[in-house]
Structure formats: C-alpha cells, structure tokens
Amino acid sequence: MDFFEQLGPAALGSRLRRLSEQMTTQAAAVYALYHVPFEPRWFPVFYTVASTPDLHVGEIAERIGHTHAAVSQVLKELTKHGLVQVQRGEADQRRSLVTLTPSGADLWPTLQQQAADVRQATEELLADTRHNLWLAIGEMEYALSRQSLASRVKTIRDQRVAAQVQILDYTPQHQPDFKRLNAEWIERYFRLEETDLKSLNHPDDYILRPGGHILLAQHQGRIVGTCALIKMPDATFELAKMAVSPAAQGLGIGQRLGEAAVARARELGARRLYLESNTKLGPALNLYHKLGFRKTVSGPPSPYERCNIQMELPLSS
Hints:
The chain is of the alpha+beta class. The chain is built from 13 helices and ten strands. The strands form two sheets. The chain has a seven-stranded mixed sheet. Residues 176-316 form the N-acetyltransferase domain. This is GNAT family N-acetyltransferase. It comes from Hymenobacter metallicola.
C-alpha cells in the first residue's frame, strides 16, 4: 500500500513536500526553456528585489513569508552569481539595502515574460482539477493562522487522554501516592514543612475526618494526580495539595482534577473555594485562573512559608 494512502491526511505535510519537490524539479525544466541559468528557489527573492528596489533584507523576508536567515542565504547565492548587490543603508548602517546589478536588470524582462507564461499555464492546470489547489492553500493557511496544527492535535490528544482518566475518591491505600505526588513538586521548588507532613502522613486525621475530601486521577492504571478539599469555616473549602506527576503533565489532568474538585465542593454546599500558592508556580496559577479563581487579600494568615498569594472562587449556593 502506498505510504500516503496508508496514513491519509496524517501525512499531509509529507504529501505537500513531495508535491513541492515535483514542482521544483519541473520548474527547473521551465527555466531551461527560456535559457535562464537560474535556481527556482531564488525566484521569490529576486522577483521582490526587482519589482521593489532598495528593500531591506527583513522587509524582503516579511513580504515573501520566509525567514531572515533563508533570505540572507539566497541573497548570498544571487550576489555570487552577479545578479544582486547588497549595500549598507546610508541612514542605518546596520540595515542592508538590496538592488539588482546590471546583469540582474538584463535578466529581469525575460523572467517577467516567463512568469506570465507560467501563470497562464498554471491557471489552465488548476482548471483541469476538480479542486482549485491555489484557493484551497489560501483556505488552509487561514485556518492554520486561526489555530495551529499543534494546537489542534493537542485538543484531540487531551480529549482522548481525558476519556482515559478516572477521578477516584481517596482510600487509605492511596496515602503513599498522595504523599509521593505532593512531596515531588514541593521539594522541587521549596521544602516540605511541618504542616505539609501532618496532612501528607495523616490525611485521615487532618483532611478527611474534619469533613474534607481527597480526589485522585488515575491514568493507565497509575495514580498520576491528586488534590484535596479541606473544610474551613463559613461554608468554605480550601483547594489544597494539588499535584500532577511530571510524567503526566501537559495532558490536561490538572484541569480535570480542578473541575472535579469544584464540582464536589458545590455538591457539599460550599459557597466559596479558597487556595494558597506561590507566584513562581506559573502553570498552576494559570490553571486556577481558568477555573475562575481570583487573587484575594482577605485570606487568613498562611501556615506555609512558601505562600505569597491567596485566591478565591465564589460559588453559587
């Protein structure tokens, strides 16, 4: 079975590269028809320089959608073949101006005629196809500018992983996982404090019996995340001890745990959720903001040295 038929749209990038290579090879034959000693990959840069003289290298790159480094490399080759010249700008010596040489100017009319012929031939080629590739490429570029391929793949991946993640209620057998996951992130950035050790070593005494809850995330048979709801006065729960294994980060598990914790708090009749964190934990703070938490200055004194930000989420009764 053909590689592209087997993979289908997953091989779109490779399929486009093959088409590009095919057209580049045939473009070389077109230049031979006009007896022009010219590399097809030079054309966008040369055309831009010829049609709009005295552009800077960065301006050329911006107009044709290539990187500054790629344009600089092509200009080196065009300069070597005596077709363009690069000069320092009078106003800004750090910016180079690009113009045609006399040889390049002599070549320009031939390339213009060739481009006109190629355009007519390409329009006839597109007319012979059911789907206009030129228009489709424009649509594809627009769609990718709105949402990148990587972002689209991540959404699909996260949805698949989310379907595989189970949110579990804590049982005594989970205490080693609860401690391991939290000690892992705390010791990476801070140090374990006495208050940490009390709740991690004895979650039944310090979290569950006073009316709190602990949730865990299981993925592929392993406990990879956890968070706790600690009962506070005035129908408030503290969202605490949230941790996701480094091996499972980036899979949306923290979001699942956070959403499950908020839902559980609502079920328990909570009117407010509260948490403590540190501003160096950027990804965690981003997650809390997504869940609806906002910074507060009305929280109680924290028992943790590492706490330098408190947040809250009002809940409807």
